[in-house]
Design a protein that fits this description.
Layout (H helix, E strand, L loop, with lengths): L6 H26 L3 H4 E10 L5 E12 L3 E3 L1 H11 L2 H23 L4 E6 L1 H5 L3 H12 L6 E6 L8 H13 L2 E7 L6 H4 L6 E4 L1 H5 L5 H16 L3 E5 L4 H9 L4 E3 L7 E2 H9 L9
Parallel strand pairs: 2-4, 4-5, 5-6, 6-7, 7-8, 8-9
Antiparallel strand pairs: 1-2, 1-9, 1-10, 2-3
Helix pairs in contact: 1-3, 4-6
Bound molecules: ligand C2E and magnesium ion (3 copies).
Amino acid sequence: AKNTYKGNNYMFFDAELSKKIERKNEIGFLLRRADYDKELVLYYQPQYNTQDHSLVGMEALLRWIQPEKGFIGPGEFIPIAEESGDIIEIGEWVINRAMDQIKKWNETFSSNLKVSINVSPLQIQKSNFVSWFREKLYEKNVDAQWIDLEITEGSAMAPDSANEEVFASFAQMGVTTSIDDFGTGYASLHYIKKFDFNRLKIAKELIDNIYEDKNAKLIVQAIIMMAKGMGLKTIAEGVEDMKQFQILKMLNCDEIQGYIFGKPVPAEEFEREHLNNKMNKHIS
Ligand code: C2E
Ligand code: MG
Ligand code: MG
Ligand code: MG
């Protein structure tokens, strides 16, 4: 019971906790006054076809280089931005930059590649998000078919008709949608089919254990079979080694994203590593 702890223990935990709160407040403060164009940058990570190893697209992943603190990971600052509401403005910046990049790549490489953009549930729940997005496509003259939106399994998938409408609107626009981190949240299989989306991204947590843990493999197999039955594509995220890759290939997972094919890198590096040489040399 708690009251058996010595006073020192309480002091220790208090100190840890206040350090965490302090860091969180500091990041929130720095993010609020950040100059996005100077401090934020999009990295891109490739997505490859499992069977023929062709490049199918890339995910835009946000990086923040804070002038004094250096690199701060999205795993740390995105939740803070979601809490403060700054994610709306950050998310708009991300979509603007990603669309510019798509435009550029389509012109330079005439590549039929999709850029996946992460959107926060808060963004899509904002009432004018769909019309804002449609206007952006028009303004930047970007073809909707080159964009995929990744939405994390979670509140965006609550059985709510407003959420259903958002997915339906994007489908109508020709923008595809993926459910991110599938298998870790609470999307129920019962209503998942209500949402008009295109692809399931199987969570890294499941992929991590795919050859040590028989249950993880069975779950991944079941997800892939279910997705196929529903006409959805599957992509495995966080694939790091050949053993995982072989199992996913055997299970007929459509696409692979992970360090095995490449880490997230700046656009210029992505061009050198993946666009000038569409076939990946490392995988045979
Ligand atoms: P996510 O969307 O699930 O992105 C995949 C994460 O897994 C990325 O982490 C990526 O670098 C990492 N990853 C990919 N392959 C491997 C692998 O083989 N091994 C390992 N160890 N990791 C791998 P990252 O870039 O740190 O992003 C973390 C999360 O932050 C993202 O998870 C996403 O939820 C969020 N995020 C990133 N950029 C944005 C953004 O522009 N908007 C929003 N709303 N969220 C973003
Ligand atoms: Mg994602
Ligand atoms: Mg993910
Ligand atoms: Mg994630």
